[in-house]
Amino acid sequence: MAYWFLDGVTLYLVITYVISFLISIAIIFLERKNPSATLAWLMVLFILPGIGILLYLFLSQNISRLKISHLNKKERRLIGAQLREQSEEIRRGDFPFVRPEAEKWKDLILMNQNLGGSFFTQDNKAVFFNDGKEKFDSLFRDLRMASESINIMYYIVRNDELGQELISLLTRKAREGVQVRFLLDALGSRGVFPRTLAEFADAGGKYAFFFPPKLKYLNMRLNYRNHRKLVIIDNEIGYIGGFNVGQEYLGKKKKFGYWRDTHMRATGHCVQDMNARFLLDWRFASGESVEVAQAYYDQQPVRSGSTGVQIISSGPDTGREESMHCYLKMINNAKERIFIQTPYFVPDPSILDALMNAVHSGVDVRIMIPCMPDHMFVYWATWHYAGTLLGAGARVYVYQNGFLHAKTLTVDGEVGAVGSTNFDIRSFRLNFEASAVLYDKEEVSRLDALFMADAELSTVTTFEEYQGRPLWMKFKESVCRLLSDLL
Q1: How far, CA to CA in Å, does 424 sit from each of 46, 347, 487?
Q2: What parts of the chain have a pLDDT lower than 50?
Q3: How far apart (Å, rounded) are the C-alpha atoms in residues 368 and 218?
Q4: Active-site residues: which are they?
Q5: What angle do helix axes 322-332 and 106-116 make, rounded to 10 degrees?
Q6: Where are the alpha helices (DSSP H) in 27-72?
Q7: CA distance 373 to 369
Q8: Contact 171, 200 (CB under 8 A)
Q9: CA-CA distance, 359 to 33, in Å (whole number)?
Q10: 83 strand-pairing partners
Q11: How far apart are CA 484 and CA 453, in angstroms?
């Protein structure tokens, strides 16, 4: 009996290692992943036979060939011509910049246009929220005033008190005749079911789930999630940032305590770009035949300010890592200071090198991370990379007043980014993300002021303290660092 059992184990190991070997060949020669991701997958496949194969099947699919955010021929012609015209004006020096900081950062504007197709608009007004109650009070007030359309998408919508309040409000607006489209990520909003939205649908509201499982409880695209948080009301008011929908975002979960996040309410022409981003995702997820060009031509938002904005979106379907390159350009151009707030700091090697170079060039680099984890492996990897920058001379703040979930980057008090994009490889390569890049000293100074206020509620970690951490902590950091490309 014992020999039979051993033979069974041997057969299992032989089969799993043969399959792992074949997958490894495919990863190396067909998928052409970056070297660090390739090595991480090889390690998982051969250290965890069988389990590694399952992880690969669920977490490492190539979706770059899926037509998720692609414009059709008509849209490419109309929108592409308009974008090329704007880019040419900037190159020739004919573009009428309203603010000098936008003209100073025109290389960043052009890069975002060429790489991500991002229009630059400069008639916008921004309002920032760093408290969940204030954000949702403002959002619900705007939703109640909607008269024509509501396009809304979140990564996480909980089936709790706040989630039910949102669904009830959307249902009421649908009954009033407002066109309501509700897009949820199937994994992040897995507690919301069709029956949860039955009354909303009966009222005339439309909903769709992004990458739903083809088999119940078996989602083969766990690694590719729509992490965007966008709300567009009457094509005049837009919301973008880090808050999802759930009681924890109001600070009502004991595990996290106060929830510190950053969200932006925008008016002006940047709302058109947010709406176009929504419609591209909606068209893919719902199958509804909507024209994205209508976001630009059917309805013109009221000019409301003078803040320059670009809406940056990225996802694994493009393969261009638009958000990462935008942040990299901002960091490389820094002359005075860089402020980063992020719950997860697992940077791409190029981002880490750029930050190291900035520190060595005398730039004041400050990074703020949370004092507690919501994803344990990512938390320990975060500390490894934070420690690397500490050794170079950066300042690392650990937020102590609850959980820090804000995703912001500001450079030299002139340009800043607010959105759903974390400073980690998952956001740069795997998730579908959206952020607003602002070219406005006044607005960026408000983000810097929020950072400095949070610094008063944080502890500053020294490199000596980091070096003196226990051996078990160093071990966890080292293991999680090896898995950085898979986290």
Answers
A1: 25, 5, 9
A2: 1-6, 28-30
A3: 36
A4: 227, 229, 234, 405, 407, 412
A5: 160
A6: 35-47, 51-59
A7: 10
A8: yes
A9: 30
A10: none
A11: 31
307: β partners? 124
Distance CA 234, CA 306 (A): 21
- Give me the residue label for tokens 């399959």: 19
What does the block give as tokens for 444? 């960026």
Residues recorded for the chain: 487
**C-alpha distance across the termini of the chain, in Å:** 41
Paired with 419 in beta bridges are 435
Enter the DSSP assignment of 426. Answer: I
The secondary structure element, H or E, covering residue 14 is: helix 2-26
Structure tokens at 468: 């003196």
DSSP 300: P
Q: What angle do CA 248, 253, 256 make, to 5 degrees?
A: 85
∠ Cα 118 242 368 (to 5°)? 105
Our measurement of the distance from residue 446's CA atom to the centroid of its chain's CA atoms, rounded to an integer in Å, reads 21
Q: What's the pLDDT at 364?
A: 98
Give the per-residue pLDDT at 472.
77
> What letter represents residue 384's amino acid?
H
Which of 1, 281, 258 is closest to 155 using CA atoms? 281
**pLDDT digit string, tens, across residues 165-212:** 999 999 999 999 999 999 999 999 999 999 999 999 999 999 999 988
> Are the CB atoms for 60 and 22 separated by under 8 Å?
no
Residue 409 one-letter amino acid? L
Residue type at position 369:
I
Residue for token pair 């989630």: 163
